[in-house]
Amino acid sequence: MRYIDDVFCICTKSQVENILSKLISYHPDLAFTHETETYNALPFLDFLIIRTPTRYHSTVHYKNLFRPNYIHFNSFCPLSHKIKTVKTLSKRVQTHCSTSDFKTMETNRVIANLIKFQYPESFILRHFHNPNHTPSNPIYKSICVLPYSPTSSSIARALSKFEVRTLYSNSPNISSLIRNPDTKSNSPYNPSLLSGCVYSIPCADCDVVYVGETGRSVGTRLEEHSKNISRQDEKSAIYQHIRTSNHSFDLANPSVHYSRIHNKQQCLTLEALVSQGFHAINRHIDLPESYQSLFP
Questions:
Q1: Helix-turn-helix domain: from which residue to which, for each copy (predicted)?
Q2: By three-state DSSP, how is residue 82 classified?
């Protein structure tokens, strides 16, 4: 399935209608929307393309319902975030505005919006993007990670004198301290949400077990097993056992033996090791003889 969005083309109204009618004719579920220029201007992403008799110009596009909502200067946020806010908005003046008049208008708009959020004008001008300035990245000897607090900025300035870079981490909140075992993916009470796992599914009518491994969630893999059974997929070892013995597998109660494994080879090895302990019907890699000493 493909999604097409935000395509800009220069053509007449009749050409647009011909293109859309041809695309829609391929399938009844296809639907396209389009915009035409208004007063010689057409929005494209966050650009506003303006057509003149000689050439095209561009500036920053704001939607009609746009209301500025930036980080308040007196808010409890790192100073670096506020500096980035100024730099990002001011850099857009250089990248989006094609004429000096548009740059002047957009600069005044950015400064006025930031002043509404208590940004000092001297602070704005000091950190306003300068296209001719190439900042040099400082070289740090070490890195320090601190939870952000009102004193973190003072500590960072003191450490910078010793060429130590400071990174901020989020302070623990209630959701991180109180975990719901039914919703957290690292909970043993809900194995279907675990990922990077080696799991097993028992047959409900005999001692046969299917052992598998997956880097995704166990629940996603179980849905695929269920679809393979519904489609009667001959490549599925579970369906082959069901077809030959008329048994059923308990897909609702898998056993997770290992979880949060992010190495594919480690998953395959553990899958083979777990398979040795069951009457397993799954295909797995052949382990070297040295592994046999791990089993009685």
A1: 70-129
A2: helix
